[in-house]
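Margin note: ligand = magnesium ion.
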Amino acid sequence: MNLLIMGLPGAGKGTQAAKIVERFGVAHISTGDMFRAAMANQTEMGKLAKSYIDKGELVPDEVTNGIVKERLAQTDIAEKGFLLDGYPRTIEQAYALDQTLAELNITLDGVINIEVNPDSLLERLSGRIIHKVTGETFHKVFNPPAGDYNEDDYYQREDDKPETVKRRLDVNIAQGEPILAHYREKNLVHDIQGNQEIDSVFADVEKVISSLK
Ligand code: AP5
Ligand code: MG
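Resulting structure:
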């Protein structure tokens, strides 16, 4: 199964991706996670990515297309399939992905589009907390860790500051429509209502993916 998951910042792509990976065994490819890993390791690519991410801007297409192409060419992808999260994010990236998939002889099976009211996203992102050891994502109010948890075990993303979030939303709203139109033309898009409880969103996602098998 080869899938994309799309949605605005905070729509719940990463949250649903973790559940999809657990249920369907596909490889999770998140460009945001790849950039954050490179930033943590202070590689050249990480330093370059940081200069864009901290401002809420997109990393240049050449860089992003390159890391995705490299990852999709690895041997586990042909066996497990993949779920791309946060890519493509410009129409040029969508065209580059079409070309990469054609070269690798891979067919895309579906695009999960999580639709959310943008007004709910600031609250979601400002309350997001991530476990320092496992990397698991929670929310202080909507999805708190079980039991009495120690806040020191969690961190917040640098780009979740309100000023940066506003820019991220503007950038993603502007870029998103042509990409969806591109995949709607190919009849690949499945719209999911994202303003529901996390488990209800996943129930809808699960139904869609099961119908693709
Ligand atoms: P990336 O990491 O992809 O960030 P994003 O698209 O802004 O999306 P998020 O990860 O913030 O949100 P999400 O949809 O995964 O939500 P989550 O599940 O965590 O990209 C970061 C940056 O990297 C970009 O700004 C850009 O600079 C760069 N970049 C990445 N890819 C790129 C590309 N292709 N090209 C160029 N640049 C690129 O949920 C959010 C919160 O809400 C959590 O706290 C969660 O618990 C909670 N939540 C989730 N679902 C629900 C629900 N149903 N109800 C209530 N709360 C919920
Ligand atoms: Mg994410």
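The pocket of BIS(adenosine)-5'-pentaphosphate (ligand 1) is lined by residues 7, 9-15, 31-32, 35, 52-53, 56-59, 64, 86-87, 89, 93, 124-125, 127-128, 137-139, 142-143, 159, 168, 194, 196, 198, 201 (CB under 6 Å).
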